[in-house]
Amino acid sequence: MWLEPGPVPDTGSAIEDPARPGQRIGTLTSVAPSLDHRRVIGLAYVRTDLADAGMNLVVASPDDRVGAVVSDLPFTKP
User: Can you spell out the DSSP letters for 30-53?
Assistant: First the structure.
């Protein structure tokens, strides 16, 4: 998933559907900068029945909420 500009969330943060705030549909497993695309990317386990490529999600940590867009692997520029 591509992360929107903002604070970089911690691994283990909840993944939520913005239409269902507070309902965890996945977990962020890792985060890294993408030098090729000049964005931050994250890998996560997400319920496949609730997230398709191109869908907007939210990474929710106790202190922040960061927008994210689901991407198929391999990552391609959105």
Answer: EEEEETTTTEEEEEEEE-TTT--T
